[in-house]
Design brief:
This protein is mostly beta strands. Helices cover 13% and strands 50% of the residues. The N and C termini lie far apart (71 Å).
């Protein structure tokens, strides 16, 4: 009878914890050792039926399932394979959740907050057409010298291809791949022609109507301001 009672209590606590962590969560901080490589707009949707979706902003990059047992949370991929790094120890408090485990000899702590909507990331605003508004070299606005008629434009596609027209290198049309850093607001433009140095830009500001890029390379042009 005592064993049965303990089993029932264990099951009850397990169901209670499962109910506490079901829902939509945003990662607010990741701490690995003494580093904090917190990803951009990272979220998890832990569904009641045990299914799991995860992504960064509007991009879903992980599908699978989840299971909690003895306050340990394990993620599984679509093939049913468990996360090779192992399970997380789970702690919850109101709308906060902490996941902890050890990876390659280092402690990992993931802090999450319950949310109602999937968080937006910079690349969620990135897609579509942009036209140059301002070109800067340090504190000097050089738009009148570089592109007085403001012909430079860019089109960002969902398939990670970008197209530029009348760019600052004098090319009437140019193509390449764009990539957003998963942990920092950085945009990399990789040319298709194989002869142009790849460009790396810091995203200073971005919304549906304005994009400000700051060069991370040694270049005369240090900042670009685009509009729709």
């Amino acid at each position: 009878m005592k064993t049965l009672f303990l089993t029932l209590i264990t099951l009850l606590l397990g169901f209670q914890l499962q109910a506490q962590i079901t829902g939509l969560w945003e990662v607010t901080q990741v701490q690995v050792g003494d580093q904090t490589p917190t990803p951009t707009a990272k979220w998890f949707d832990l569904k009641e039926n045990g299914q799991m979706l995860s992504g960064n902003g509007g991009i879903i990059n992980q599908r699978g399932s989840w299971q909690i047992k003895n306050a340990q949370l394990t993620f599984y991929d679509l093939n049913g394979q468990a996360d090779p790094a192992g399970a997380f120890m789970v702690k919850t408090e109101e709308d906060q959740m902490t996941l902890e485990r050890e990876e390659e000899g280092m402690s990992v702590k993931v802090s999450l907050q319950r949310i109602e909507n999937i968080p937006m990331a910079s690349w969620d605003h990135l897609l579509g057409a942009w036209r140059i508004k301002e070109i800067w070299a340090g504190d000097e606005n050089i738009t009148a010298d570089k592109d007085p008629e403001k012909k430079f434009s860019m089109f960002i596609q969902w398939d990670n291809v970008f197209k530029t027209y009348n760019d600052l290198q004098g090319r009437p049309r140019h193509f390449g791949l764009w990539q957003i850093h998963g942990h920092r607001a950085e945009l990399r433009l990789q040319s298709f022609d194989g002869t142009t140095t790849n460009e790396l830009w810091r995203i200073v500001d971005m919304d549906q109507s304005r994009m400000v890029l700051e060069s991370m390379d040694e270049s005369e042009v240090t900042k670009l301001v685009f509009g729709r």
